[in-house]
Amino acid sequence: MRVRERVGAGKMAACALRRGLLNTVSKYNKKHTQRLLSVADTSSGFEAYKLRVQCRVCGLSGGVQQRRFMSSRNRPEGKILETVGVFEAVKQHGKYETGQLFLHSVFGYRGIVLFPWHARLYDRDITPPLSDNKPEPPGTHGSKEVKGKTHTYYQVLIDTRDCPHISQRSQTEAVTFLANHDDSRALYAIPGLDYVSHEDILPYNSTEQVPIQHELFERFLMYNPTKSPPFTARDTLKAWQEKNHPWLELSDVHRETTENIRVTVIPFYMGMREAQNSHVYWWRYCIRLENLGNEVVQLRERHWRIFSLSGTLETVRGRGVVGREPVLSKEQPAFQYSSHVSLQAPSGHMWGTFRIERTDGSHFDVRIPPFSLESNKDDKAPPAGYTF
């Protein structure tokens, strides 16, 4: 079995965006509007946002329904403010529809919803009743097992103009597929596709007919001013989703927090290859690390345990992740990346730890929640998404 760290994703680039927007968007008021302007942050390439909380109607500070926000571009001649759109109310219930524009509350990029997924969220920070505790799979690190609860995630397109700002020495998130050639193990990637949790979305609207720059935007979506949101799915999007459902589907999400460092893991089955008269099964897994505290820490090492249904158990140790040792601070609290693993069995599971270093040189281990690697045995057609 092999683990390949191949595709990296975005490092956090807008800390004040997350704190400021979430604090104000939750204060919803239909009668007032409030501007949100950006102040350039030269250390990150994205902008740190500050609020002017003066209402343009009554002159008083307060919550608002519509907040206009802006972004800046780093150019040799200076930074230019550009109007992006007007905030809408955050949905506390229900789900966002195809075509919903949004700002990512953690990574700060502009995006648009393609379609929702209903995932099972296994949050190990929630203590289950004692009667619900079950034994862990063989060899796991012994933390509690929890029941999954339904949670909404979204397949989204990332605005390519924001990719340089969120990548920060790493690649932007992508969805990867196996090649459909029998003699090839090549991976095909579609950059600028991400999976976003419901609470990560800050919805907005725009008068632009093409508000998101991505090569798939106009192939997948069309402008329809009679709809809300005014972007609807083309037949190509529906066909793409249907054909690639087994490789796109997000089914399980695993989350666990250790000493204010939260690790979220999402595994995806990628398909099977034949090699030397045996079958090799491949998975991709996306990992996000978030620093929920105020202390500056740095990821130094990873330690994986990979169990295969064939009965083998492998240990993988190494420096950092995807060749990097990200710093997680109050200003840049999150880091996200993807990697790949293969087994010579149709199922297995993984778990492990990240070694985290404090500024005083001391270390502690952050648990990676155990997650299953399950194959979709009944799916025979190869993925077709990379043909775009």
From TrEMBL:
Record-level GO BP terms: DNA repair; error-free translesion synthesis
InterPro entries xref list: ApaG_domain, ApaG_sf, Hemimethylated_DNA-bd_dom, Hemimethylated_DNA-bd_sf
Compartment(s) where it occurs, according to its Swiss-Prot or TrEMBL record: Mitochondrion matrix; Nucleus
Keyword entries, A-Z: DNA damage, DNA repair, Mitochondrion, Nucleus, Phosphoprotein, Transit peptide
Cellular component GO terms, alphabetical: mitochondrial nucleoid; nucleus
GO molecular function: DNA binding
Signal sequence segment: none
Pfam families: DUF525, YccV-like
Keyword Flavoprotein: no
Domain ApaG: 255-380
Subunit structure: Interacts with PCNA and POLD2. Interacts with SSBP1. Interacts with PRIMPOL; leading to enhance DNA polymerase activity of PRIMPOL. Interacts with POLH. Interacts with POLD1; leading to stimulate DNA polymerase activity of POLD1.
Job of this protein: Involved in DNA damage tolerance by regulating translesion synthesis (TLS) of templates carrying DNA damage lesions such as 8oxoG and abasic sites. May act by stimulating activity of DNA polymerases involved in TLS, such as PRIMPOL and polymerase delta (POLD1).
UniProt name for this protein: Polymerase delta-interacting protein 2
Species annotation: Anabas testudineus (Climbing perch)
Gene name, Swiss-Prot/TrEMBL: POLDIP2
